[in-house]
Amino acid sequence: MKLTVCALISGVLVFATVTGNAAKAAEQSAQRAGQAPKPGLISCAGKFEGRYESAAGGPGPRIVFRSGKATLREPDVVMKDGKMAALFSEKEAECWTGGGKIYLRWLDGSQYDFPIDINDDGTLDTPDGELKKKGG
């Protein structure tokens, strides 16, 4: 199997050809878009909306939920052409919820695991700390 994929990375359109298992995984990921990653999950749309940031203040991840999608922004040093380009990175995901958890399916097809527990007080417990709703 051979598959050509396209991605926008730091404002640059990149094309790549993948073969074998990587091509199968990319195709399966594209086919699953819009479908819950596990039975019983529902879209976050209307349930989680707005900006969540570190409950303690200071640096940390930020997640913005909008219409069933999520943008995760994390502190990171991003290099471009050998120079520092940014102090954060962003990833886009579909957002699903169920059983007291939020599941993010990354739109770029990556398998980066970022489990999110929903606390009773509405804060979100992530691997990088607790997030609190800060804005709409």
Structural class: mainly beta
Give me the CATH fold name of the largest domain: Lipocalin
Query: How many domains would you count in the coordinates?
Result: 2
Q: Shape, please?
A: globular
Question: What number is the mean pLDDT?
Answer: 81
How can the largest sheet be summarized? 8 strands, antiparallel, barrel
Residue stretches low in confidence (pLDDT < 50, at least 5 long) are: 5-15
Strand content: over 45%
Describe this entry's structure for a reader:
The chain has 136 residues and is mostly beta strands. The chain has two domains: 1-32, no CATH class; 34-135, Lipocalin. It is built from one helix and eleven strands, in the order E-E-H-E-E-E-E-E-E-E-E-E. The chain has one helix at residues 20-32; strands at residues 2-9, 12-19, 42-43, 50-54, 62-66, 69-80, 83-98, 101-106, 116-118, 124-126, 129-135. The strands form two sheets. The chain has an eight-stranded antiparallel beta barrel. A two-stranded antiparallel ribbon has the order 1-2. The longest helix has 13 residues, at 20-32. It is globular, with a radius of gyration of 16 Å.
